[in-house]
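User: quick one, fold this
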Amino acid sequence: MFTRHSKQILSFALGAVFTLGIVFLSVPSLAASTTQMISVIFSDMKLIIDGKQYTPKDSSGGEIKPLVYNGTTYLPLKAVAEAFGRVAAWDSVTQSAIIERATPLNPLLKDLKPSNMSVHYNYNEPVFEFMRDSFGNAYRDCIGLITNYYQPNYIEYFLDKQYSTLELTIVPNEIFDTSIVDNVYIDGDGKTLWKSDPISYKTRPQTIIVDVSGQEYLRISTGGHEGKVTDSLIILGNATLS
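Assistant:
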């Protein structure tokens, strides 16, 4: 028989240990291999997260009521995970419920797909597995910023206001043409956040940290230069968001 539980307030803090039983209600199959009829109590308890009331909902937007069975309160795992900025998934092969961060901690910029690029990239990903600078230093999984045309070249990324800083090392690649002098610009939502000093083949590696708080779009570009077309690139090494 189903009855309605009296209202209670249950407070959670981020990082606190969950003492409630949790069930995964939004997956096609569960790990249990037996079926059993049980009587549960649907509860009107409130879920408070960081001082704000949170209402668990299913994929269709319908409210999901917590339930009580044998003195233990059960909550939908997927909805609770999302409330803490996580994503939940069901692995039918290993019969496992998996909870992960919605976005990885300190992701590399190379792992974000560019939202736009200048035409000279020919729609190729500007990521290189291995590059050397003009001083012999090696860089892996870096971004190559084109500087071999007379007009600016750029790469844009959609940050969705999720990050606060961008840290990267800027240095010319090993075949940087001796006749080229160029600048690197880092813009956020149309405003310049950082501009390099003129970069030539003699420029030493420089590591910078740029504030990207509240930025939806990030644009990294060169200023363009006069002269011949070359294979010169500016290396953006270890570009990390946090």
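User: anything notable?
Assistant: The helical segments are 77-83.
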